[in-house]
Write a structure and sequence with these properties.
The protein has three domains: 44 residues, lambda repressor-like DNA-binding domains (434 Repressor (Amino-terminal Domain)), CATH 1.10.260; 119 residues, Response regulator (Rossmann fold), CATH 3.40.50.2300; 121 residues, Response regulator (Rossmann fold), CATH 3.40.50. Helix 8 runs parallel beside helix 9 and helix 10 crosses helix 11. By secondary structure, it is α/β, with parallel strands linked by helices. A six-stranded parallel β-sheet has the order 2-1-3-4-5-11, sandwiched between helices. Strands 7-6-8-9-10-12 form a six-stranded mixed β-sheet, with helices on both faces. It has 13 helices and twelve strands. Helices cover 47% and strands 18% of the residues. This is Trehalose operon repressor. GO terms for molecular function: DNA-binding transcription factor activity; transcription cis-regulatory region binding. It comes from Rodentibacter mrazii. It holds the Pfam family LacI.
Length: 313
């Protein structure tokens, strides 16, 4: 009969602690390369895989993670999803990906569907007005991305800090007429928090606010770009999608301005001069989400929140 190895067995064979084995399985960068190779050699030699350990600890037949994204065509979510899938495939865990289209009812429907299929671990891309009540009805392992929840493990972004950093970049370059193209306040993070950060910066530095709020799509960004008043020295966009719409508008008007936005887009960076982009940490968010979820799968039910750092280009 084939032995069902556990992390404890691996730790004993490697003469290391269980936490070290877990960190190797979770690809923790803090583990030294020598230790990683030592543990991995044992894992490979006995044919151990994390899914067997998860099976033994959870009583499930096969590890499957349900992933609920807001929009599959979102640039930021796509980057995060790519990191999630890479990390899950590395652990030999199967993902089931569904789309909510910013609809709470769809989230509830998908969670119920996952229950029916005996999926007990999920990653949910949070959005407004997704309520905590819907998420708390889920009885299994769960990690939320992009929204902060006190009682649910989550990985969230520094929306206000990112806008402040981009505004400060423009300000130190001498620009005083900075326009802002953002998302409606119904969206808590991408919308209200980012817009408020722009307004706070304007107030603190005695700048006249000049902004337009719209939906999250390229055409809406293009159509609302004309609402920004003159004079206009530089433009800050809340998202990559809006930045694409703004670039289209400015090019048509033959009045390109220095442009900044949250996110990264190789095409924009290649063709648009004086562009300031910001690595919002989408890939890091995906890796952290999987790390938190794996901890839950292996028995650590402690609720944890992690704030993702951003980096100016």
């Amino acid at each position: 009969m084939e032995k069902n190895y556990t992390i404890k067995d691996i730790a004993k064979l490697c003469q290391v602690g269980k936490s070290t084995v877990s960190r190797v399985l979770n690809n923790d960068p803090k583990v030294s390369e020598a230790t990683r190779q030592k543990v991995q050699t044992i894992i490979d030699s006995i044919g151990f895989s994390p899914n067997r350990s998860a099976q033994a600890m959870r009583g499930a037949q096969e590890p499957v993670v349900g992933i609920i994204v807001s929009r599959l065509n979102s640039s930021g979510e796509s980057q995060t999803l790519r990191a999630i899938l890479t990390a899950l495939y590395r652990q030999k865990i199967t993902p089931i990906i569904v789309e909510s289209q910013f609809d709470e009812k769809q989230v509830a429907h998908h969670l119920n569907l996952f229950k029916q299929r005996q999926v007990d671990s999920v990653i949910v891309f949070g959005f407004s007005p997704l309520s905590e009540n819907i998420l708390q009805q889920w009885q299994g392992n769960i990690v939320v991305i992009a929204r902060y929840f006190k009682d649910i493990s989550c990985v969230y972004y520094d929306d206000q800090g990112a806008i402040n950093a981009l505004m400060d970049k423009f300000y130190t370059q001498g620009y005083r007429h900075i326009g802002y193209l953002g998302i409606h306040d119904q969206d808590e993070t991408t919308g209200r928090l980012r817009t408020q950060s722009y307004l706070d910066f304007c107030q603190q530095h005695q700048l006249k606010p000049n902004f337009a709020l719209t939906e999250l799509n390229i055409e809406a960004g293009y159509q609302h770009s004309a609402q920004l008043a003159q004079p206009l020295d530089a433009v800050l966009c809340a998202t990559t999608t809006l930045a694409v719409g703004m670039v289209k508008y400015l090019q048509e008007c033959q009045s390109m301005r220095p442009l900044a936005y949250i996110g990264q887009n190789p095409l924009l960076e290649h063709f648009v001069p004086n562009l300031i982009s910001l690595d919002f940490g989408y890939e890091q968010a995906g890796n952290w989400a999987v790390e938190l979820l794996l901890a839950q799968i292996y028995g650590n039910k402690t609720v944890k929140q992690r704030l993702v750092s951003f980096h100016l280009s």
